[in-house]
């Protein structure tokens, strides 16, 4: 059993017609189907327990109880990063260090949570031009690439370009090619404490990226990869 | 099902009384019990298929068929590294790049196979003094450390000291403290191609190191970690 | 010309007799002599411009002007980490991302600045027992090890032990052996943005560690290594 | 003073009209001008001592004396990798481990020397289509990127595509975008022993890539980066 909590800002889909047309129930509900749909049952043989949480719930839906019960947290945010309370950021950080997995999606590169865990600005270049993107698998031996082809092609998407101000990833799984002439490190693995973190670029609010079967496959692979393992004691403090 | 092939030089145990006393059936047979014994059945829930191969068999016991069927190869050698045929080294390297896991044990730091895959001399300092070693878990979140305590203590062992001429490990899991005043990076993770490689220091031929329950636990954890994953295509050559 | 700013909490030396006996003018002044003393002039051929700053000065002595003019910042703190203003931490982080070098010394592992840049708790184990420490050079090819012997021995010091809750270092230069049975990753290199960060363990307030010639050598080597380089543009934002 | 040895296979330029038209004196002589031309004198303030060596000289021009005197070795090869004697490969590897820098250029990804030091197949995808390449600086803080703009554009070149079967680089400096839809890790830093290795993709024999001012700048930056440093002793063997 793998318990997943999908966190979504859930503003665009309520305020913006274009986003509402693509994700009428919110991006979190679309992401939930990645783990509850038929393809998950057929492919993975894992039983997922999926919950969602959003910015405007009390504690942004991320109480200590919720986080304690979460194996892997997915995070999608864009226009309201600053409204996330520092106390909740502290809580998420602490849980990641203890072993909770974290998937940081698309514009969440600018989330407080990601910046806190990486220590850099997490800035990048961008252009909303609806051009084609190819996510090349540069690490075909990585479990996050299980079952993929050489690349994933997204016909219409927003461009993210280098430089991407993040620490050198532990492993780089995907590098994107954009029609307009840019490249981007689109699948970056990190460890912080006992927790595994995966940044995955795809996912704009006005393109139906999360319906793409290979993107969905990556999300399930990444959840499996980021799931906590037993490990050894993290004992700190004075030693006799 | 995880298919393990345990390769052993198998010379000390046939030629040297002291080694024969500790490992009368050979180190390979002692290592086999790590995966076939009761503790494996209780702890792991994995079904292991264990084979052994030794230097003096034809092809050193490592034909293409054997390697093709192997998920993880364990390698123990010491005094006869040079007798391993280059053709077999090529074969092992190729299989590792394709995804086969490899555990390199103790004095096999000097094996042709390890040097081939790492590209360095793999030299170190050593002293056969029977002093105490403590293998500290420096990466408690790593699955190879699952179920361990803060450190593993080996009361009597050979010392290996830094500098250890290997590339900076992808992940460092253990660092050893030696009674005589030295330290050593004792558990080093690497990836080459799609294959996972783990160097694990413990294992002298005249100390019963492979009877230690925690060392055995590490070996099983490392086999699980090094097992091949599906991945994406490794396609090379001219592209249309 | 290399402009160094040495930041010190400067409390122990004013409040605690034992510390005052070892560092009567403050640890910052003792560290300044590393770069202004005869040995620096003979060995390095670099002209250093050395400034100091302390917690109880306005802005903790770290105004924008001071930081803008600083090539490498040294940071020593212990009992008053929480008194460092977040605004100053923001400023230091931003300058590091832009390229300023940072040396984090001893108990400053727990400084806000270090935790901000690494994203982890930076916790460890410790024991104030005055035992012997040996800092082994595990990366003899690293410029921070220039001119050293195999190890640096400190006859009396505080123990720091693993696990050390930091991201896997980009390069590990030193690993410490402690008489009492522990090990520690004592010299850790990181990059964040364009800035180079070096954590260096030695330096307790009641042992005259900063008088040790090899520790002083390491500090100068580390300043040279951490000095900013020209680089390429860090351009972020919307791209046409 | 930095002593550079430029090794070139030097076959295409003698046997193939197209290559001879671009590099009439051989690629090695074109590369030599990177360090002896006016731009080097103006920009770098380093005195270079430049030598060349080619496949068909005795010992391929790489005697022990030549290598002992070399700070950084550049390597260009393409169609005759197999003709390089293993004894010379051993010698180059040993010198790199001792600290000699190595720049591996373009099709030399398949050289024996590079494969020996990395331990992988170093395979990739390619297409000789004369399309446009953009080498994006993904690590603007790296000294190899000093003085560059956001990217280097090469109007006509051969394509190299992922996957590139190399170990995860210590630092990735450039990622290429190709007009035809591919990406490639074009500037990869490694350390082996005390030696620094930089793989740099540009450089086909039938395009005048080595006349590009920014490519030339990168080559000089990389030589500076790869130059040996003093370090600490590499002492191996039995320890008393």
TrEMBL record, chains A, B, C, D:
Pfam families per record: ThuA
Limits of the ThuA-like domain: 4-226
This protein's name: ThuA-like domain-containing protein
Naturally occurring in which organism (per UniProt): Natrialba asiatica (strain ATCC 700177 / DSM 12278 / JCM 9576 / FERM P-10747 / NBRC 102637 / 172P1)
